[in-house]
Amino acid sequence: MKREELWDEAVRVVRGDLHGLVSVREDLERRWSEPHRGYHDLRHLDEVLAALGELRGGALDTDDEWASVVLAAWFHDAIYDVRAPADNERLSAELAREALSPHGIGDDVVATVAALVEASATHDVSVSSGPHAAFHDADLWILAAPESRFDAYCADVRREYAEVPDTAYAEGRTAILSPFLERASIYRTALAREAWEPQARLNLRRELARLHLH
């Protein structure tokens, strides 16, 4: 299902104003298409949505949970500024609240969407099912991508930080990626642990080895 169709499905499930939210979706697509983005672009959004589709049956119990993770996917990197990365998730969550609340979507759903977006800042989730687990795993699907796609992802992230010297980038990126290998499991849902975990660990080891060369 195309990203626009998934957006419409989610809005219908939570009884939002489909017509009124068209402009919100279009604004999000413009944001995801900003020229400074390397990895955090529409392809990443599509991959997160596809990963959520794989997890839907095993990790999500209700249609409202499904709608919440789909909307969170659309908003989670809506604001992406490499110069102030610490603010991206907070500002994206604020955007979700401001954009969704006036269009008939209930406070509980809006709060869940915002919480999912904010949680993506740390990728630190303890539950093994439900919206937080599913969204956590879908956002990290890229770590388990086929080798060629994972390598392209690494190159795309490097391009986003092109102004950072190689040594500083290698140190910073290592600090971000290494903790995933230190976890008992990178992923939280049973499906992701079984299907994605082995490839993710192989990919991470390869990238960390490359970074170590700088």
UniProtKB/TrEMBL annotation:
It comes from the Bacteria. InterPro entries: HD_phosphohydro (IPR009218). PANTHER family: HD PHOSPHOHYDROLASE FAMILY PROTEIN-RELATED, PTHR21174. This is Metal-dependent phosphohydrolase. It comes from Knoellia sinensis KCTC 19936. The lineage of its organism: Bacteria, Bacillati, Actinomycetota, Actinomycetes, Micrococcales.
